[in-house]
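Hey,
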Amino acid sequence: MLDWAELDPEKLERVAQLLVREACGATSVDGKGGDLAQDLRHDGPDGLTIYEVKSFTKRLNNSRQRQITKSLARAVELHAPRRWVLVIPLNPTPAELAWFDGLRGKFPDVELDWYGLDWLDGQIAGRDGLLSYVEGADSKLLRRAQQYNMERAALTSGADLTQRMQDLVELGATISPYWKWHFGDTPWGPGRILTAQRPEAADDDPVQLTPYFSFPPDDPEAQATAERLDRALRLGGDVDIPGRYVEDFRVTAASEATQRLLGEPRQQVAQLRLISIPDNTGLPLRGFLVLERGGGQSGLSVPFTFTDGVAGTHGRTLTGTDPSGLLEARLEIEAGDPVRGRMELNLKPLAGSYPHDVLPAVRLLGVCTAGDSLHFRRGPVTIASFNADAPAPEGLPGLHHLVAALEVLQDHLGTLIPVPAGPVPDEDFRELLAIARALSGRRARLPHTGLSMDLQPGAIGEFLTKVPEEPGALYGTQHSIDITLDGRRYDVPGLALWAPNVVLQNRAELEVLSADARAEAVATFSSPEDTGIFLIRAVDDPGPAYRRVVEMT
């Protein structure tokens, strides 16, 4: 049983408050600025109850009785409670009980109760955490535990291990009534997580982490780390500090029990990570990222939603994504006059995503260049504006062309075509762009200036009669063109070759071979470099601008 008389008065009152709060559902009143004669209060359906805690462990002499009476009178004057309860580590003597009955006569409108030693002992019985908190490192519980060396006992099964771990965790929760360690996996590996055991832990028994940093001025990495730390503290964020820059790290608790749980105040750290507490006030914030060029709207915009926020001493940082989840933005807003801001955009890897999902974001970034401006708008209202201070990253314009071409191709084929996981070979990339351009209704110039076609035996003479000797346009359809992306082959129908100015180069050779009905041959066409050969969308009627070569259809 707890010896209440040995306790420091402040700790005695603190423990008594904890017991009343848990047993009666009362709320503690912080008395640092004067508690107005109410250590705890409970507003119930039957009215207000005021609890007055006194640390008197010796008999109530005239002076102590006057203090109690004064507290009761002030509580009645200020709060008019229906019930007033004295909480004190004393059971009343007959004389003290008579005196307390006399108070009932002086305050007939208030129900008076005495929660004495029996009530307190009954509430704390079996509360090892509170006993450890009150008695400190020399508590009976800890002295008993030190007599055993159970952690060295042999383990014979997984069940023994599980039970031992569970028992140790339960015992660990008795070290402090406010806090405990939770052991588990974290994003950074196995770790201990300090967890509150009661909602008021942070207020009643705060834990303070105090790092001291040293950033040598002649160390560029140290200065960069210091800048990241300063930005995270001012605007919120997430920053890693290597241990070599942490000169000292102290972990202190308000109570001695929690300090025993935490260990020595000064601790060594190999790395320190500071993460701001989320502040999602006003979120989600939905709008559009709009690109402007030369003072006029470009017509390019992307739906965007800021979903998460953190706050610092001088501002706030918001993060969010576009609907695909692949375009991420970090918006820093710094308080001041005027308000200043900075936005960073990041495009995650696109492999496996579908072009129609990511094209709006890729197009916006791919065409953005230094001097353009980006605006975040909600309807007609501009929330924030930023100037692009650099051109699009290297490779992003090419990625834009790739994704745009894939969208055209998948729309034409009526099938989903994911963005390839690896780089597309240059030849395949050029062919894909040509196919997409042709399917979009524009002609795509091919990299060569000649065409050839196989002529079957017996067909050479008929072929020569259909091909004029003078240069002219040539139109030839193909059943399909195939292209391979990420190891998968796609057959693309509906395309044709068109050359506005070609001539049959080997006519003389073909005329000689035409006399032999069994001869096979290859017809070769050439085109001047200034005219070229193009891939276009096939048409039902080429019209007078084309000369159809029957054998090429």
